[in-house]
Amino acid sequence: MPLLLALETSTTVCSVALYKDQQLLGASELQIEKSHSSHITVMVSQLVENCGATLQDLSAVAVSGGPGSYTGLRIGTSTAKGLCYSLDIPLLEVSTLYGLAAQVIAMTPNPERYLFCPMLDARRMEVYTCLLTHELQEVEPIAPVVLEEHTFEYRLKEQPIIFFGSGAAKYKSMVNTVANALFIDGVLPNAKTIGALALPKYEQQAFEDVAYYEPFYLKDVYITSPSKGAK
């Protein structure tokens, strides 16, 4: 039975989870900003040990692949790739937005009645988002979207949509009187869902190339040089 480690570092949440076959053995989570680099390796080691296993027992590592924070994704990816290289095990990737949606779909009665719209805050009025069915099929592809009152207007006329994630509050203030626009607060990325979605990929051997894998940053990262007067 495969022993799968899952990592989620795409936002301010840093979490790890361990699965044996379909069973969740344990999970650990921190919601401390800018803590990922200093805590994730300790969290992994402690979780694996607490579950009665060793790193050498791992069959694969799954990572939340974005979109999300550039720094967070980079830390998660480097940790996952380092483990895969050193242990000679495969790497799996799961979309951060799919992971968010899977949480909400699982707790929604009759989910086939709705579309699901995860939103991650991308600063100002922009979000990283997509539109999914209850089977995680894309109705609208993953993209950066600048929110306006009419952003999802034509979709909302056809079917109720559930919005959630760190960017959903921006849109809620625009469409709070629209009957088909439904909102759920407090939905955060977690490694438990990443692991659950990665298990079928492991069975299908849908592995990433460890050497060349890069997370889905979605937008180019611009790094500016300090001004000449800066010290």
Strand and helix map with partners:
Elements: E1 3-8, E2 14-20, E3 23-30, H1 36-50, E4 60-64, H2 70-87, E5 91-94, H3 96-106, E6 115-121, E7 126-132, E8 138-146, H4 153-158, E9 161-164, H5 168-175, E10 181-184, H6 191-203
Parallel strand pairs: 1-4, 4-5, 6-9, 9-10
Antiparallel strand pairs: 1-2, 2-3, 6-7, 7-8
Helix pairs in contact: 1-2, 3-6
Summarize the structure.
31% of the residues lie in helices and 26% in strands. It contains six helices and ten strands, in the order E-E-E-H-E-H-E-H-E-E-E-H-E-H-E-H. Helix 1 packs across helix 2 and helix 3 packs across helix 6 (191-203).
Structure overview:
- The chain has six helices and ten strands, in the order βββαβαβαβββαβαβα.
- The protein is α/β, with parallel strands linked by helices.
- The strands form two sheets. Strands 3-2-1-4-5 form a five-stranded mixed β-sheet, sandwiched between helices. It has a five-stranded mixed β-sheet with strand order 8-7-6-9-10, sandwiched between helices.
- A hairpin with a 2-residue loop joins strand 2 and strand 3.
- The model is unreliable at 221-231 (pLDDT under 50).
Q: How do the strands of the widest beta sheet line up side by side?
A: 3-2-1-4-5
**Given the structure, what is the number of helices?**
6
As a percent range, the share of helical residues equals: 25-40%
What is the percentage of strand-forming residues?
A: 25-35%
Termini separation comes to: 55 Å
Look at the helices and sheets and give the structural class.
alpha/beta
**Got a strand count?**
10
Mean pLDDT: 92
Q: Major β-sheet, in short?
A: 5 strands, mixed
Which stretches are poorly predicted, pLDDT < 50 over at least 5 residues?
A: 221-231
Anisotropy-based shape: elongated
* Rounded Rg: 18 Å
What are the secondary-structure elements, in order, as H or E? EEEHEHEHEEEHEHEH
